[in-house]
Please model this.
Amino acid sequence: MFPPSVLRLLGSLLSPAGRRGKLSILIYHRVLARHDPLLPSEIDAHTFRWQMELLAEYFHILPLSEAVDRLQTQSLPARAACITFDDGYADNQEVAMPILKEYGLTATFFVATGFLNGGIMWNDKIIEAVRHCQEPSLDLSELGMRCYDISSGRMKVSVIRALLEDLKYLPLSQRLEKVESITGLLNTPLQKDIMMSDDQVIDLARNGMSIGAHTVNHPILQKIDHTAMCSEIAQSRDYLQSLTGDNIDLFAYPNGKPGQDYGWEHVRCLQDMGFRAAVSTAWGVSTVSSDVYQLPRFTPWDRQPDRFLFRLLRNCLRKNAEKVGG
Model:
């Protein structure tokens, strides 16, 4: 790896300060206490620690609300970045927060409120169903689905991905019905502590972390009607405001792909509700010309520090992140 001074100079050239400033927003979901072979895309505490060490050394990490203000007033520092988490997993508070505090960093946690206090998201139910199946195959034919080979860890990961893709874009009620049928058929034991409790959300806020809304039930907004969409957003915001005593004015679109998971009507809804900014999952960096209701996010997937850092810097070259327009 190049000397730190050279890397900082390169970062400042790619992400300068002021009117040409660029804001990198990283997205995480979980930080596991230890590696889980069925969750290869989720990092463990060891990996998260060296990633935070790199971010603290080479980037200026800002609270998202401050970064939005400075983006609009063209006063970002060089190498500006934010850290965000989606969904509300318990390990965000148990594992990630102590590491963030160790390096003097802050993050924004977007919480789907319907899963707090013992809930479990539909995708995690599928993962646990596959994990606990003791047979070499997962036979879902009586549910109108396939029989899947899960005879190895690699095949289990492949089947999990296939099931999640097959179910993700079903209408919410149909998706939930399918998931309940699968877990019921397999008599799957489900964790009750995978998501945060109210007290853990409060603890994040008390420790200087920001809390943002992420709907109640994490629906694909494009798949539900206007009334349901407004209710999902407002109820999530109101619950978190009541819980923390803070004004909740940041939002993350569930799944977050522009045009596929949310549209212009959802952007307008957030504006009408008084939200300050929102983040998507489109890759890229934000500039003064970015729509603050569609800020892109990106996290390098590399498991080596030099590659992680260089891919993050290279993302600063990405032009015009995907978004929806009115």
Observations:
- The first helix runs from residue 4 to 14.
- The CA atoms of residues 266 and 284 lie 21 Å apart.
